[in-house]
Amino acid sequence: MGIFRSGANEQRPVAGAAAVAGELPSIRLRDVEEADAEFLAELQSSVADDEWDGYDDAPEDMLSGGSYGGGSAVVELNDRTPVGSVSWIQVPHGPNRSSLAWCIGITVSPLFRGQRIGAAAQRLLYETLFRTSQANRVEAETDVDNIAERRSLELAGFTLEGIARRANWRRGVWHDMAVYSRLRTDAP
Ligand SMILES: CC(C)(COP(=O)(O)OP(=O)(O)OC[C@H]1O[C@@H](n2cnc3c(N)ncnc32)[C@H](O)[C@@H]1OP(=O)(O)O)[C@@H](O)C(=O)NCCC(=O)NCCS
């Protein structure tokens, strides 16, 4: 992907219609390098017990992004400090190539949360995916109660579409997921 720079009612957006996408921090996305192994392992362990993003499945039951035509990137500050990671996988909405959309995910290091880095990174990621692929749609799902991620998606310019009922199996319970999308034609 190279380097790119950026400048509860369940049925309603958590931020309301007035969520403003401006005022996001300046971050970059870059390819994962060998030297990132330690940072990414720490990042992964930081969400091992996360209420919204921690899974207790056996390793063989976890799906790798690589199996879905996706990828991942490191989120870093302009001084190259790594602060998180993003990933994306292809999801089909029909039996043809044109109906493939991207579904994205993110983790921000606990040390760097509270600065809207998640929104900035997810905005830069969909801009990059639209520029580098033919996809018409980038989507993201998160637990209906994951307010930080829902607010981040809304700040990044995603639209809430609805709730995927009991779609996510996590820690022995089925969870409702809030479904968000960003279309190629959505207003900047
Ligand atoms: C989700 C995540 C990426 C957001 O990280 P972040 O960019 O640091 O998010 P912030 O803390 O800046 O919060 C973003 C917005 O949500 C708001 N917010 C966060 N928690 C909130 C809460 N409990 N109630 C209300 N608003 C909340 C913040 O105030 C902020 O809005 P504002 O800047 O307008 O005030 C990060 O929390 C994370 O990595 N979580 C673990 C992994 C995860 O859940 N990933 C998504 C899985 S689908």
Number of helices: 3
Low-confidence stretches: 16-21
Residue fraction in strands: 25-35%
Q: Using only CA atoms, what is the Rg?
A: 16 Å
H-E string: EEHEEEHEHEE
Order the strands across the largest sheet as they lie in space: 1-2-3-4-5-6-8-7
Supply the CATH architecture.
3-Layer(aba) Sandwich
Blueprint of the fold:
Layout: E1 4-5, E2 28-31, H1 37-46, E3 71-76, E4 82-92, E5 100-108, H2 117-132, E6 137-143, H3 147-156, E7 159-170, E8 173-183
Parallel strand pairs: 5-6
Antiparallel strand pairs: 1-2, 2-3, 3-4, 4-5, 6-8, 7-8
The chain binds coenzyme A (COA).
Coenzyme A binds next to strand 5, helix 2 and helix 3.
Index terms:
188 residues, alpha+beta, Aminopeptidase, 33% strand, binds coenzyme A
Write up what this structure looks like.
Strands 1-2-3-4-5-6-8-7 form an 8-stranded mixed sheet, with helices on both faces. The chain has one domain (about 5-185): Aminopeptidase. The protein has helices spanning about 35-45, 115-130, 145-155, and strands at about 5, 30, 70-75, 80-90, 100-110, 135-145, 160-170, 175-185. The longest helix is centred in the middle third of the chain and has 16 residues, at about 115-130. It contains 3 helices and 8 strands. By secondary structure, it is of the alpha+beta class. Coenzyme A (COA) binds next to strand 5, helix 2 and helix 3.
